[in-house]
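Posting for a labmate who doesn't have an account.
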Amino acid sequence: MGDAIRSVLAEPAILAVWAVVVAFSFAVVLRDLNTANRGMHGLMKYVWGLTVLYSGPVGLAIYFYSGRRQIPHDSLWRRSFRSVSHCYSGCGAGEIAGVFIAAGLLSLDSWWVAGISFALAYVAGFALTMGPLMQEGVPAGQAFSDAFYSETASITVMEVVAIGVDLWLGGGATIDQALFWSALAVSLTCGLAAAYPVNVLLILLGVKEGMHSPKEAHHGAC
């Protein structure tokens, strides 16, 4: 099974098609954010843009289901999608930065790449939570404590699954091979899927509040 998946992902044409699909999905979300949802809070614009860049049509579907002010009503499921996407945007950025640094610049082996990517995903994920809290006047220590309490479970599950899938599918690939990047794209989306039920549970238990409804957070115009 794994060998069959790897053989498909190793095809440069598959990676090229995926890049086109992602580019189209990103163009769609960018257009919607700048027309029908142009008054959305700036941070969430970045969240949705990055989510679509990482996961293409999957991220776009999540945005249309839970992130637009035009959703018919809010729900636990939609709040959880917004929450996991917020986490995903930061962690994905950290993980991709780790890949570029460890594999691209330093040419380290797969386990070093995994370790550095894991660490940077945590840093980026925490920063995306701490930053807005500190902007609101929360002291750094309290902001870190809040981020640790609310985000650790989600980030851990997301990164363990994402990095595990990446090592399984593309562990032997180098940065100049299509398999390397295809495996990374698949692994990121697997991490998103794995962390979603964790966010549902965290919101249900009151550990996380979940991101506000886009109807409430929308500042302005149509």
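Reply:
Got it, the structure tokens are right above this. Residues 89 and 96 are 11 Å apart (CA to CA).
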